[in-house]
Predict the structure.
Amino acid sequence: LAAGANSVGGMHTHAEHTINILLGTQVDYDGNGRGENPGMGSGVLYFLDTIEEQLNQIFNQDGTAQNRTLENNSELIHVCLVNVRGWVDQVVTLEQQLLASDSIESVGDQATEAQQIASTLITGADLNNNGQVEPFEGECGLQQISTYSLLLNSINIYEGPLPP
């Protein structure tokens, strides 16, 4: 919404909302006397931290660290977490530039870039143009975390007798 604002005040309000939603804060970035967060209040980083903590708990259980399939599948999620954290940082930096500006026109490029990165943060990006958003650096985003989380439930089935 900051990218499409019709006034500097509107741009500042929406930039504050974006930063507070991403970080889970209620900081008064626009100077209106109240920090506003129209989101859930926890922030994207809180949820990324929670996912990472749960992945770490899996590997701290006895015997789990030896499960290479589980380790490999959790790494797919880890790549997405790293991507999203980087994009959050980029959006926050760009939104802070909007907050520091007294002219919509002078930060139009930053507003457009912030909007594009925020979209990528959610949907990911197909950097290698193969028609898929994969668990690669710079590709997978929030939507792919749920997709690759399903792989944590996969098991290997082998033919033959059970090992002793």
In short: The chain is about 55% helix and 0% strand. The radius of gyration is 20 Å. The chain has a mean pLDDT of 89.
